[in-house]
Amino acid sequence: MVMSRKPGLIKQMLLEELAINDASPVAKVARQAAVSRQAVDKQLRHLIAQGIVQVEGEGKGSRYFLVVLSEKLSRFRLADGLEEHLVWRDLVLPTVADRGAAELAVLAYGVNEMLNNAIEHSQAKEVVVRVVRNAGSITIQIVDDGVGIFKKIADSFRLSSLPEALFEVSKGKLTTEPTRHNGEGIFFTARLFDAFMLSANNLSFMHNAHVQDGWLAQTDQHDAAGTRVSLVLNFPVGRSVEEVFDEHVARKGEFGFTKTHVLLKLAQFGEKMLMSRSHARRVFWRLERFGEVVLDFAGVESVGPAFIDELLRVLPSKKPRIKLTLVNINEKIERAIARIGN
After folding, report:
1. CATH classification for the domain delimited by 68-242, as one of 3.40.50.410, 3.40.5.10, 3.30.565.10, 3.40.30.10
2. Which of 219, 226, 236, 260 could form a disulfide with 145 if both were Cys (CB 3.0 to 4.6 A apart)?
3. Largest CA distance in the chain
4. 132: enclosing H helix or E strand
5. What are the CA-CA distances from residue 251 to residues 78, 145, 247, 322 (Å)?
């Protein structure tokens, strides 16, 4: 393939692999580009000579990393009337002024949405923003010292646990101030960036776009108060804001966030199994706000007959306007579904 032998393309592929923390990318890039390892190694040496990549170790033990080109950290007191667009304009934008419009749109959306959450919902006194740029990616961290997002949601909606609050966040259209916000920011930010992490109240909600079924919830024994958001965007961007928005419209010609993606493995976080009718009702809560709901069973090994009957027969009969789409179902769950109504 002639195109794959262009040095510029090989360099770009190396930068993309290093941006997702592949410290030994030569063999993979050679295979993908259909060139020799020597050809890839030559371009890697050029990147090292240019100061873009650094190497640790020698010989077969060598590991490669992108050199940090710039790093900024700023603290903001919320009592001073912080405005998110000014943080974007003055702190983040100068770091990525050389990038294209699609990349800037993704970054602007994520930074402004996550900062607005901290300013208007966190009950924090201070927000810290850290921006780290290298040749292949940018990482943005936003940390506040407030009550923590999962506790705020659990208290506001009288939920039974913090993991339940995390699950509700993952569905989208969740806000403690519906007259002022639509509750879409976290849902779309998590899907726009290559890596996303939301941590608070000893829980973390994460997504890695480069891993199959890259959604994860876990306990996080971090003693710091408040909420921590980490956003990583690799260059060039693999998706536009408009494309991600369009993927979550239920019907062609509609506008707005009318299709959601429910990650059922997050519903069993802290519960181990999905067994009861009450658990199904918890999963179904607020889904009437959408025209279409994708129920994703990835990571769910089995379900109880009462749970699946309530989820797929009883509750939909009460909300017939919702279109349910089931994905990532294994044989055990298929058999449970086949028994519904029998």
Report:
1. 3.30.565.10
2. 226
3. 69
4. strand 126-134
5. 41, 41, 10, 12
**For residue 236, what are the CA distances in angstroms to 54, 96, 163?**
21, 12, 34
Give the per-residue pLDDT at 6: 66
- Residue position matching structure tokens 């994708």: 294
pLDDT in tens, 35-75: 888 998 899 899 889 888 888 888 778 888 888 899 999 99
The two tokens of residue 182 are 């639509």
- Which residues are 198's β-sheet partners? 205, 229
In the predicted structure, residue 223 carries a pLDDT above the cut 70: no
User: What is the β-pairing status of strands 323-327 and 137-144?
Assistant: unpaired
Domain 3-66 of CATH type 3.30.420.40: no
Task: Spell 28-40 as b/e; 16+ CB within 10 A means b.
Answer: ebbeebebeeebb
CATH 3.30.565.10 in the chain: give the residue spans: 68-242
CA 52 to chain centre: 27
**Which residue bears the tokens 């009718």?**
277
Residues 129 and 57: their CA atoms lie apart, in Å, by: 33
Nearest to 62 by CA among 20, 32, 27, 13: 27
The CATH number of 251-338 is 3.30.750
What are residue 162's phi and psi, to 5 degrees?
Answer: -70, -40
